[in-house]
Amino acid sequence: MARRDDFVALLLDRLTPPGTLLSRDPDSNLGRLCRAAAYELERLEAMGEFILEDVIPSQTTLFLDDWERALGLPDCDIEPTSTEERRALVVEKLTRPRNLSLAMIEQVCETLGFDVTVGLTATAHQFEVVLAEITITPFIAGLSTAGDRLGSFGLEALECVLDHVKPAHTTYVLTTPP
Fold first, then answer.
1. Is the pTM of this model over 0.70?
2. What is d(CA 127, CA 170) in angstroms, rounded to the nearest whole number?
């Protein structure tokens, strides 16, 4: 409330032109108008302080949709279910290391919930992604429909993540442990 009184005093005493035409009495029409303006100034000042704290991606609520839109989230149809998960994806994408190492690819996959091990293959432009288990859904005549894949792994989300983080000149192979 003290801050509002400071705004009223500022509006009445310092910003009102000198003279007898405008009353500087706080109960006059001008005083009530200044009190209403002071209320809005106080509200805007509080909102400004809130915005400074809320714009930080790890604690945002008001700007979370804006962060997601700016970063192109959610990636690869990985839909987070809570606000904390949404914040974690924003922070992960902002702080993701930008290098070409296999450890970085493995770290990103693990951050997004995929338990994988990334290793080298015999060729220089290919790496392998080892999953604990791969379930293959085969195309079965009579049960599958036209347009279905001949065999699918159900790993479209992982493939999308790998396509986003891998260097453009490389390819990968999905495998299981020997």
1. no
2. 8
